[in-house]
Structure formats: structure tokens, C-alpha cells
Write a structure and sequence with these properties.
By secondary structure, this protein is α/β, with parallel strands linked by helices. It folds into four domains: about 1-50, no CATH class; about 80-190, no CATH class; about 230-520, Rossmann fold, CATH 3.40.50; about 525-620, no CATH class. Helix content is about 35%, strand content about 25%. A hairpin with a 2-residue loop joins β14 (about 195-200) and β15 (about 200-205). The two termini are about 55 Å apart.
Length: about 625
């Protein structure tokens, strides 16, 4: 099914700098982008105006037209010859001569070809077959041609399972395989072995979005992209529960962010919500998952999975969720010794190499939760967490600090647990449609949404990043910014019912939570925190050189803390390599020294001729 819905708003985007991160997005209907820059009241105003024009018809002659009819396309008395086979309304027959007479062997019920398929590289050829099941319902089956060479029996079994009636004679099965080899079509469509972006189209199992029709070449595999209720149902019953709760707003925005990672050229990765069992941490995952499918626990079609599986199974799951949300609950269930390599695999988007097979590849937004942190879980196996693993899965505290676990506003419910149970219930009733509307917009307005998202990401970075930071923080800010952008744009497109700025502010709050966690693993953040903590505890002991007083720790002069070398080494660093600490705070511009001996610079301190000091700028206190 190709989705080309009429929900096609156009967009005008205003980004005011430097103080406002808000967006003024007007009514939508776009296809051509024009950009102009003006000045207003000494504030830079960037306007992206998208003008509505007729979308050009797809001129690809290979794409077949679709029909909602259940008819196969053969009249009752029509007959088509394909090699030694005859196809009519009664079925497919093998016609051959026996003792001078033409004899028909019934092969199967009427089975025709609608189109041939190939991927964007011109490989993985297949055939889109069409038939009716015994109830008269029209069915399609996408056959990968290579399967006829290696899995012919499975192909026949799949067709019978879908409702094709096989002839009763002994030769019917082998004749069906022979007939499938012969089928040809002048119509051609694109195919892909995984969901996600295919050129400018987006593919889900059994459904594609965009101007070209795209087929999933392994569509016989089960999938969990289910749908129940309308967009208004989801907005009224699910999205309306998010405002006032930073983690819930952020969680829903994470769901919307997954398909735009490729649009803004961001790598895969994700977020881990960490907290005790009583915090309601899974509710954010349930809301995010409801954008894609059913989040109900125990349901065989549940979109939200858990970590209690093998690395190989997670690899297959990631491929099947390419460009989509990878929601996985209970991090503590995965074996601690394989967690680190698994995080690298999932975030880097490449599976294990296997002989004779192409490596699986994907790009996903991971969203997970658990009672333990990555570091704590890996430590149980005696494995130390690497910074790359922490950066690929950014940790947010589940506890929002309001004595209600994850929640800050329980919307009139009697308790946080009642509120959490209500969220669990509604996410099992209304799901799936928000993704489909979102994808319809993305394929229609891809260029404009990509530009708007990039602008919001830059605005987010300007809000949350100080002037000088290490390498880790900007990388994390990009991912948080993408979530903010997705939430804001989904809101402006009418998908959430939230107020402007709520998704952005929630991302800022969650980024601040991650910054607290950052201090536990990033060497630069740890070094800065170490020095900052010492200065806060000893601020009263830093003497003013102009007053002529002595000090046991150092002096404060011209916006800098001058720390004696032995104090820096023995009290500030206290057993940690003091040169490493100095190097780390120098990286972010807090060490105000220069020259070959810059980390212990000679500085004049009035009543002393000079002294060796470690000179830290007072910006370190911000």
C-alpha cells in the first residue's frame, strides 16, 4: 500500500536568535523552499518559506497503478498463454499433449504477476504475485526470485498459507514452481530488504510512503508495526498525558526523532532511562512505542521488546527496525559481558560478518530503560565501561525530582502508580497511526523538514552548551537536539496537541540530567568537577593579594583562582594524576596558562615576588 494522504500542511519557520528557541510555524503546504533573511528590532530573523506547488507526477514508467478491486483482472472467458501454461478465471493449467490429445493439469487457482521488483542497486530481483484466497479476498505475495533456487518448497508453502489453492495432482507442486519461473512483467517497482528510507520514499512492512511504490522483499517475516485507533484518538488519550512531564514529552519526541536521523545526517545511538522499579520508567518507552505499534506487555505483536535475548537476535531486530525506534526494556536482562559490544553494534549500525552473507546494516534510535546503569551492569561481569559506550547510550535519570518518580504532573490521578497504569492501558488501545501521518509528512516535505530540524538542533546547542566544552558534550547535544526538533515539528504538524516549546524544554531538562551523569565517566567532566568542588569547599581560604593576607591554598586575582602546585597535586587531585587533571581542564579553556610550563605557571602575587601556581579561570564555577 502506498500512502499519499491529503494531510499536507505547508510551513513557515521563524527562528529568533539569540534568546528565543521557539518556532513560529504557520499553516503547512510545501514542496518548494525559498529562504530569505531580514532584520527586525536588532534580532536576526531567519524565515524559511515553503510555497505550495503541484507535486509532479512520477514519470517512472515502471511503476504499476494500484486498484482497490478484489478482482485479479481476468474475465470469465479470458485466457492467457504463458509457455505451456494457460491462465484463466478457473486457475492455472499445464497444457500438454497426451496420445495426440491436449490435456490440462490443474496447477493452482488463478495466479498472475503484477510487477517485477528490484532494489535501488538493480539487484535482489523479485515478482509481485496476485491471487485470491478461498474467501475471494485479493492477496499479494512478494516473491524473491532467488528463493526459487534455494527455498522453492517454502515459497509454495507460503502461497498455500496465504490462501492459494494448489492442484490435487502429484505434479501440481513442481509445475507451480516451473510456472513461477516463467512469469514476467513490463511493470517494475523498487524493493528493499528492510524498512526505512529508500531514496525519497519510506517503507514499512506492507506499506510505503512516497511517490514511488516500494516493496519489502522479506515481507513474509512477522512485524510489529500495528495500528489501532485514529490520530485524534492517540492525541486525546496518549499524547495529552505528556505535558508537564519532561520524561514523557521527551520519550514521545524520541519516537518521532528516529526517522529524521538520516535527514539531518546523525549517527545511530540513543538514550537509557535509569531508575528503580517504583519510578515508572517504562511509561516513557510505552508512549514512544505507541507511535509505532502496540506497547502492551504479553502481546505477541508488542512493539516494545526487552533485552532478554541474544546478540544475534538483537542484530536481526535492529535490521528490521531500520530508520525507526528501537525500544528495548529492562537493560539488566542482557548478559553483562556482552552489553558493551552489543551497544557498539546497535549504535554503529553494522552486524557481524558471516561467510557468504552481506553484513546487516541499519540506523536506529535506541530507547531503553532499566534499574541499573550501563557501568553498574557491566561491572558485575568485571568489565569497565568505555566512554564510547556511554556516549552511544546517553543515560537520563528516571526520577524527575518531584517525589513522584518519573512524573512531575499526574494530571489529576490519585497517585503516580494509578497514572502509570492508565498510560499502560491507553498505549495498548491507541497506537501506530501517529507514525503513518508523520511519515506521510516527511516524504512530502523532506527538504523543508530537514532544514527546519537542523535549525532547531543548532538552536538547542546554543542554549545548552557553554562557550568551550569537551568532545563528548556537543555530540550528545546533537542527539538531544534532534529529539527536540522532532517533537517541535511533530507538534507543529498537528500530531501531538502540545504547546510550542514543550518538547524543546523537555529535551533541555533531560540533557541537564545527562550532564549530571556525565560527571561519572567523562574524564574532562570529572576533572572539571574535581577542581570546581575543591574551589567551592575552600573559596573562603583563597586570599586577596591586595589585602596582604597569607593563604594555605592560593589566591584569587583578576578573575582567576591561583592554586599552589602542592595543593593542586595533593588536595585537589588527591591520588589522581595531577597532570592528567590539568590537561583535561586545559582542554575546555579553564586553565589560564600558556608557555612550555603552562600547567604550573609563575604568577606575581603582590607581597610575594612570585609563586608557582595553577591558574584556573572563574568560569569554571558556572
Amino acid at each position: 500500500m502506498v500512502r499519499n494522504k491529503s494531510v499536507r500542511p505547508s510551513i513557515s519557520i521563524y527562528l529568533r536568535s539569540p534568546v528565543s528557541h521557539m518556532l513560529d510555524l504557520a499553516a503547512f503546504s510545501l514542496h518548494t523552499l525559498r529562504e530569505d533573511t531580514t532584520m527586525s528590532e536588532n534580532k536576526e530573523l531567519v524565515k524559511l518559506e515553503i510555497i505550495d506547488i503541484k507535486q509532479p507526477r512520477n514519470s517512472d514508467k515502471d511503476e504499476p497503478e494500484e486498484t482497490d478491486s478484489d478482482e485479479i483482472g481476468l474475465d470469465d472467458d479470458a485466457e492467457e498463454q504463458i509457455g505451456d501454461f494457460v491462465v484463466n478465471a478457473g486457475g492455472v493449467y499445464f497444457r500438454h499433449e497426451v496420445k495426440g490429445e491436449m490435456v490440462d493439469i490443474h496447477v493452482c487457482s488463478t495466479l498472475t504477476i503484477e510487477a517485477e521488483s528490484r532494489n535501488k542497486d538493480g539487484k535482489d530481483w523479485g515478482k509481485l504475485l496476485m491471487f485470491s484466497d478461498p474467501s475471494g479476498k485479493r492477496k499479494t505475495y512478494h516473491l524473491r526470485t532467488s528463493a526459487l533456487a534455494f527455498q522453492a518448497s517454502q515459497v509454495v508453502a507460503d502461497l498455500i498459507h496465504e490462501g492459494l489453492r494448489l492442484g490435487a495432482q502429484g505434479r501440481s507442486r513442481s509445475l507451480l514452481i516451473q510456472y513461477l519461473h516463467l512469469l514476467r512483467s513490463s511493470n517494475h517497482v523498487l524493493s528493499s530488504s528492510q524498512p526505512g528510507w529508500v531514496n525519497d520514499n519510506f517503507l514499512l512492512p506492507n506499506e510505503s510512503f512516497g511517490r514511488q511504490r516500494v516493496l519489502l522483499s522479506n515481507d513474509s517475516k512477522p512485524h510489529n508495526f500495528r495500528q489501532a485507533g485514529t490520530l485524534d484518538d492517540w492525541k486525546t488519550n496518549v499524547a495529552s498525558l505528556c505535558p508537564g512531564n519532561s520524561r514523557l514529552l521527551f520519550g514521545a519526541s524520541v519516537g518521532f526523532a528516529a526517522p529524521i536521523l538520516r535527514l539531518v545526517n546523525l549517527e545511530g545511538g540513543g538514550f537509557h532511562v535509569c531508575g528503580t522499579s517504583s519510578t515508572g520508567k517504562s511509561t516513557a518507552l510505552q508512549i514512544a512505542s505507541s507511535i509505532y505499534g502496540n506497547a502492551e506487555e504479553g502481546n505477541s505483536d508488542r512493539y516494545l521488546i526487552n533485552w532478554d535475548t541474544t546478540k544475534g537476535a538483537l542484530e536481526m531486530a535492529a535490521e528490521s527496525l531500520n530508520d525507526c525506534l528501537f525500544a528495548c526494556d529492562e537493560l539488566g536482562l542482557i548478559d553483562a559481558d556482552v552489553l558493551g559490544p552489543t551497544l557498539y553494534m546497535l549504535a554503529n549500525g553494522t552486524g557481524k560478518g558471516r561467510m557468504g552473507e552481506t553484513k546487516r546494516a541499519w540506523r536506529i534510535m535506541i530507547f531503553t530503560s532499566g534499574e541499573v546503569s550501563i557501568a553498574a551492569h557491566m561491572a558485575t561481569a568485571g568489565v569497565e565501561t568505555k566512554m564510547g559506550q556511554e556516549v552511544r547510550l546517553l543515560q537520563i535519570a528516571a526520577d524527575a525530582g518531584k517525589d513522584m518518580g518519573m512524573f512531575e504532573d499526574i494530571h489529576g490521578f490519585s497517585s503516580p502508580s494509578e497514572y502509570a497504569n492508565h498510560i499502560k492501558n491507553v498505549t495498548s488501545l491507541y497506537y501506530g497511526e501517529p507514525l503513518r501521518v508523520w511519515l506521510s509528512q516527511l516524504v512530502s516535505e523532506r527538504q523543508a523538514i530537514a532544514i527546519a530540524a537542523q535549525r532547531i538542533i543548532e538552536r538547542f546547542k546554543a542554549v545548552v552548551l557553554p562557550g568551550t566544552v569537551g568532545a563528548v558534550t556537543p555530540r550528545a547535544a546533537m542527539r538531544f537536539g534532534a529529539v527536540a526538533a522532532a517533537g517541535e515539528l511533530a507538534t507543529k504538524l498537528g500530531l501531538t496537541g502540545w504547546n510550542e516549546g514543550q518538547a524543546f524544554d523537555a529535551a533541555v531538562t533531560c540533557f541537564a540530567s545527562w550532564k549530571v551523569h556525565l560527571k561519572t565517566f567523562d574524564p574532562t567532566a570529572k576533572a572539571v568537577e574535581r577542581v570546581r568542588h575543591f574551589i567551592v569547599d575552600n573559596e573562603a581560604h583563597f586570599a586577596d593579594p591586595t589585602g596582604g593576607g597569607d593563604s594555605t591554598v592560593g589566591y584569587y586575582k583578576k578573575g582567576a583562582f591561583l592554586i599552589f602546585p602542592e595543593v593542586f597535586r595533593e588536595q585537589v587531585c588527591n591520588g589522581v594524576d595531577y597532570q592528567e587533571v590539568a590537561e583535561q581542564i586545559e582542554k575546555v579553556g579553564f586553565l589560564l596558562t600558556s608557555g612550555t610550563n603552562r600547567r604550573r605557571r609563575s604568577g606575581k602575587v603582590t607581597h610575594l615576588c612570585s609563586a608557582r601556581v595553577t591558574r584556573c579561570g572563574n568560569r569554571i564555577m558556572v
